[in-house]
Design goal:
Blueprint lengths: L18 H12 L16 H6 L1 H4 L3 E8 L3 E2 L3 E8 L2 E8 L18 E10 L5 E12 L15 H6 L1 H7 L1 H23 L3 E2 L5 E2 L11 E4 L4 E5 L4 H9 L4 E9 L11 E10 L3 H20 L3 E4 L2 E4 L6 E3 H7 L9 H11 L8 H12 L8 E7 L15 E9 L2 E8 L4 H13 L11 H9 L4 E7 H9 L24 H8 L1
Parallel strand pairs: 4-6, 7-11, 15-16
Antiparallel strand pairs: 1-3, 1-5, 2-3, 3-4, 5-6, 8-10, 9-10, 11-12, 12-19, 13-14, 16-17, 17-18, 18-19
Helix pairs in contact: 5-6, 6-8, 7-13, 10-11, 12-13
The protein binds one RNA strand of 76 nucleotides through strand 2, strand 3, strand 4 and helix 4.
RNA sequence: GGGGGCGUAGCUCAGUCGGUAGAGCAACGGCCUUUUAAGCCGUGGGUCGAAGGUUCAAGUCCUUCCGCCCUCACCA
C-alpha cells in the first residue's frame, strides 16, 4: 500500500519490493549475471540522436541505454521501448540473434535499466527499432513501476516520489527542462548587459531586505543564532556601494510562512541591482527579459495560465497605485484616513494597531489585486509602506516603486533604491519599534554604514522565479515547478528489512 | 487556523439502499517472429488511511486522529 502515506506505521513504500524480482536477483547471480554491475559497456548514443539520423544511418550499429518499458512477447521475438533522457525508441530482441542471452530473457522486465547494442532498422510497420545483438543488464529494478498508460496520478505520491513521477510521466521532465532553460536565459540576459553574477550569504545575523518570518538556525562554534535569508537585497546593495555597479543573484530564499499553490517555504529569487538606473530603467529591463524569454525559450508571447490567456509582448501598461486605489474604491482617496478606515471595516479587513498606510494597503490588496491579471506594472506606491525605496523627486509621499503582476500573482517588486543613510536608518529604527513579528528585531547598522560611504542612485529588482515559471509553463501550482516541494514528513518508523518482508509474505 | 473534498489490489479507478471485495492494466504459469495500451488460455493478489462507536451485519453510518488536494485567512 505505497500511497497510503498517511497510515501511521512507518516507512510507507517498502511493501512495494516485489518478491518475484528479489528471486530473479538470486537467479541472475546464480547464472553469473551481475544485477548491479559497475560498468556500462559501449558508449550509449542518446536516443534522440539515433532517431534523428535514421534516414542515413539505417543498418548502423548503436549502443543505447535506458529504462526498459513494457515487454511485448512473441515467443521468439520480444519488443519493448527503451527510454533515456532524450527520448524513447523501440528495441527488438530476437532469439536467432541472441543465442546466449535468450535463456535469460525473462529475467529482464519493465523498469530495469539496460544497455542494448544492435543494428538500427525498422519493423514491418516502419517503427524505428534497434535489433539487439547484445543485451546487458545495468540495474535490476526491484519495484513495480506505475501503470504504463495512466502513469502515476496520485499527487501526493508524485511529490513524495518525484523520481517515479519523472520516469513514468515524461511531460513532468519537460517542465523542469523548461525551468533550466529559463534560468540559463535569464543569466544570458543579465550577462550580456554587463551584470556580474554573485553569491551572497544565506546565513544572516540580521534578517532583512523583506518582511517575513525567518527560519532560525544556530552556529555551534560561534554560539550564535543565525537566520536563513529572507532576501539577498541588503548584501547586493553593499556590492553597489563597493563599485560593482551591476550585479544579480539567482538563489534560494527562505520564509517561515504558509504553504499554498503560490508559496513554498524555500523558493528561488532573482535580484538585480544597477547603478545609475531608476525604477523606469528596471521596468525596461523586465520587459526586455520577458520578451527574450518568450522569443528564445517559449517561441511565443502568448501564454496560458489558469484558464486565461496572456500576451507578454511589451510594453506593459503602467498604473499608479493611488489611481487604482481610487478606481476600485469609488473614488476614495488613499490619503483619506477616515474614509479608508471605514472602507476597511466594510470589507472586513480592518485590524487594530496598524498604521493608516498599512490599513490602506490591506484595502488595496482586497479590492485591487484580484483584478490585476497583468502583465501590468503597478507604480508609485505610498512611501510609508516602502522602507527601502527612494521617494519621488516630485512628490515626497510617493516612492519610486513598482510591483509586477501577471497571472493574478505578484511576480516582482522593484524600486529606485533608497540611498540616503539618515533616512534609511530612521526607517529601520521605526521597523524595530514596531513589534510586528515579521519586522527585523535589530537595525542593520552595517548596511547603514555602507550607505554612509555613498551608494550611487540605483534601480533594483526582485522576481520570484518559481511563480514566473508557473506562468510560463502553465502549471497552476508552485509544486509543479519545484522538483521537491515541501511536504509534511512521513512518520518515522522502522523500515522492515528484506527478510522481514519475506517472512511477512509467507 | 476556518471551510470543502479525497484516501479501496503494484498503478488507474468502480463499489447502488448497510448484506460474502470488483474491473482494466501490472504480476505469476503457459502459447505465439512484427507488436507498439499486442493477443489468447490459466492463476494468485485486499487490515477498504488509523483507532473507536452504532448495528444481527460497516468500504458504506457516527466520532476522533493522520496525510494529501482545493479554498479562505496569512503572505514586501
Amino acid at each position: 500500500m505505497p500511497t497510503n502515506f498517511s497510515q501511521n506505521r512507518g516507512y510507507p513504500v517498502t511493501k512495494q519490493i516485489h518478491p518475484d524480482r528479489l528471486k530473479r536477483v538470486e537467479t541472475l547471480k546464480e547464472r553469473g549475471i551481475a544485477p548491479f554491475p559497475a560498468r556500462t559497456p559501449g558508449e550509449p548514443t542518446p536516443i534522440q540522436e539515433v532517431l534523428a539520423g535514421i534516414e542515413e544511418n539505417e543498418g548502423k550499429i548503436y549502443w543505447v541505454a535506458g529504462r526498459l518499458g513494457q515487454v511485448r512477447d512473441f515467443g521468439k521475438l520480444r519488443f519493448s521501448h527503451l527510454r533515456d533522457r532524450s527520448g524513447a525508441m523501440q528495441i527488438g530482441l530476437q532469439r536467432d540473434k541472441l543465442p546466449d542471452f535468450w535463456p535469460n530473457r525473462k529475467l529482464l522486465e519493465v523498469g530495469d535499466i539496460v544497455a542494448i547494442q544492435g543494428e538500427l532498422g525498422r519493423t514491418k510497420k516502419g517503427e524505428p527499432t534497434i535489433w539487439a545483438t547484445e543485451v546487458v543488464l545495468l540495474t535490476k529494478s526491484l519495484r513495480l513501476p506505475p501503470e504504463k498508460w495512466h502513469g502515476l496520478k496520485d499527487v501526493e505520491a508524485r511529490y513524495r516520489m518525484r523520481y517515479v513521477d519523472l520516469f513514468s510521466n515524461p511531460e513532468v521532465r519537460d517542465s523542469f527542462i523548461l525551468r533550466s532553460r529559463v534560468i540559463r536565459e535569464i543569466r544570458a540576459y543579465f550577462d550580456e548587459l554587463g551584470y556580474i553574477e554573485v553569491e551572497t550569504p544565506i546565513l544572516h545575523s540580521i534578517p532583512g531586505g523583506a518582511l517575513a518570518r525567518p527560519f532560525i538556525t544556530h552556529h555551534n562554534t560561534l554560539d550564535i543564532d543565525l537566520y536563513l535569508r529572507i532576501a539577498p537585497e541588503l548584501y547586493l546593495k553593499r556590492l553597489i556601494v563597493g563599485g560593482m555597479e551591476r550585479v544579480y543573484e539567482i538563489g534560494r530564499v527562505f520564509r517561515n510562512e504558509g504553504i499554498s499553490t503560490r508559496h513554498n517555504p524555500e523558493f528561488t529569487m532573482l535580484e538585480s541591482y544597477e547603478a545609475y538606473a531608476d525604477y523606469n530603467t528596471v521596468m525596461n529591463r523586465v520587459e526586455g527579459l520577458f520578451d527574450r524569454l518568450c522569443k528564445n525559450v517559449l517561441g511565443t508571447h502568448e501564454i496560458h495560465f489558469r484558464e486565461k490567456t496572456y500576451n507578454l509582448k511589451p510594453p506593459y501598461p503602467k498604473k499608479k497605485y493611488i489611481d487604482l486605489f481610487a478606481e476600485y474604491n469609488d473614488g476614495l482617496s488613499y490619503f483619506d484616513e477616515e474614509g479608508v478606515r471605514a472602507r476597511a471595516k466594510e470589507l472586513g479587513v480592518l485590524k487594530e494597531g496598524l498604521s493608516p498606510e498599512k490599513i490602506a494597503n490591506d484595502v488595496f490588496e482586497a479590492t485591487v489585486e484580484p483584478h490585476l491579471d497583468g502583465p501590468v506594472f503597478v507604480i508609485d506606491y505610498p512611501k510609508a509602506i516602502c522602507p527601502l525605496s527612494k521617494a519621488s523627486d516630485e512628490d515626497p509621499k510617493i516612492a519610486e516603486r513598482f510591483e509586477l503582476f501577471l497571472g493574478g500573482m505578484e511576480l516582482g517588486n522593484a524600486f529606485s533604491e533608497l540611498n540616503d543613510p539618515v533616512d534609511q536608518e530612521q526607517r529601520f529604527e521605526e521597523q524595530v519599534r514596531d513589534k510586528d513579528p515579521e519586522t527585523p528585531g535589530e537595525v542593520d547598522y552595517d548596511y547603514v554604514a555602507a550607505l554612509e560611504y555613498g551608494m550611487p542612485p540605483a534601480g533594483g529588482l526582485g522576481i520570484g522565479i518559481d511563480r514566473l515559471l508557473m506562468v510560463l509553463s502553465g502549471n497552476p501550482s508552485i509544486r509543479d515547478v519545484l522538483l521537491f516541494p515541501l511536504l509534511r514528513p512521513l512518520p518515522s518508523g522502522e523500515e522492515p528489512t528484506l527478510e522481514t518482508e519475506e517472512s511477512d509474505k509467507s
